[in-house]
Amino acid sequence: MSAESPVQSAGFRGIQTGPVLRRVNAWLPVIATVAILLLMLLAGQLYFGDFVTPRLVSSLFDNNPYLIVLAVGMTFVILTGGIDLSVGSVIAFSGLLGAQLFAAGLPAVVVLPLMVLSGTLIGAVIGIMVAVFDIQPFIASLAGMFLARGLAYVTSLKSLPIKNDGLNWLLGTSWGGGQWYTTPGVVLALLLVALAFWVLHYTRFGRTVYAIGGNEQSARLMGLPVGRTKFLIYVISGTGAGIAGVLFASYTQSGNPLAGLGMELQAIAAVVIGGTILSGGSGYVLGSLAGVLVYGLIQIAITYMSVDSWWTYIVIGVLLLVFVVFQRALSARRRG
After folding, report:
1. What is the pLDDT of residue 10?
2. Where are the transmembrane segments (predicted)?
3. Where are the domains of the chain?
């Protein structure tokens, strides 16, 4: 078996064309996602007449900072061909942990890092199972999901209100003027997107992530630190889930044992819609951001149409099928 070149491992493999065409081809799924987003905005404007407004764009980000952060961490995991089913449960556990600690009188400067650390530790447990004991990511993260959800129920069986200015400041404070606005939580989420983009595309760690997803055996033969990298990506995902737990607690101003139910599937859907291939090796964190915006825009459009919210899942399901078929066709083109 021949080892792939670094360019091939970084999501551009299988195309015998020039570097510019290779790069354009690699960005095609992201371009398709952005095109769908723009078409949805155009269709909404034509149908409703007053759809695309500064307030809509601002609320599109304001309603989804925790999902953006989850999608960032999930992108790292899926790029290696793995999956993390624990992130939604981590949101519940970290939120309840924060609620209990705030009720005990601890300040935000102590509680918020501990909320994030709870996600980091669960991610580390999953990473050890995957990297050290070679357990399938689905099984390892499923165990992490049950662990985090169980810890949430042990912490509290009911919703606990959170009244803390430090936590509520993240999404309760608006910056901007007129109809344009943003919040500190949204800024934090976008900064994490930018940091993830830099790590994935301008560091050795990022190149190793792509190489593992492209061909793990070749990555080992090239002497890349496969085990350490796989451990770290689950730590990153768990940390992201902890941060998302902080943002979600700020959004709801409470901790709830049922928080985050199904949110891991929403994050996976956003990443796939954003063009990251589930088998790994190809994808971009900017595409995941676009996938979250598509998901959020569908929810807003469903609300505008005054139909049942379950239609959101139907539309997302159709989009997922379309993107999976598109990815398969693109993969076949690359192999050809």
Report:
1. 46
2. 26-46, 66-83, 90-110, 116-135, 142-160, 180-200, 231-252, 258-278, 285-304, 310-330
3. 28-37+53-329
Topology of domain 28-37+53-329 in CATH is ABC transporter involved in vitamin B12 uptake, BtuC (1.10.3470)
CB-side exposure of 55: number of CA atoms within 13 Å?
Answer: 5
Taking Cα atoms as reference points, which of 219, 195, 217, 200 lies closest to residue 276?
Answer: 200
State the Cα–Cα distance between residues 102 and 214, nearest whole angstrom: 44
Q: What is the pLDDT of residue 333?
A: 64
Q: Report the C-alpha gap between 78 and 60 in whole angstroms.
A: 25
Chain centre distance of CA 211: 20
Distance between CA atoms of 16 and 14, rounded to whole angstroms? 7
Six token digits for residue 305: 């149409």
CA 44 to mean position of chain CA atoms: 26
**Helices of type H across 156-284:** 165-172, 184-202, 204-214, 216-221, 226-252, 263-273
Query: b/e per residue, 27-53, with b = 16+ CB within 10 A?
Result: bebbebbbebbeebbeebeeeeeebee
d(CA 33, CA 309): 22
Q: What is the structure's pLDDT at 301?
A: 85
Q: Nearest 5°: phi and psi at 164? A: -140, 125
* Res 9: pLDDT: 43
**4 and 211 in contact (C-beta within 8 Å)?**
yes
Arithmetic mean of pLDDT, 180-186: 91
User: Whole-prediction pTM value?
Assistant: 0.89
H helix or E strand, kind and range, residue 182: strand 180-182
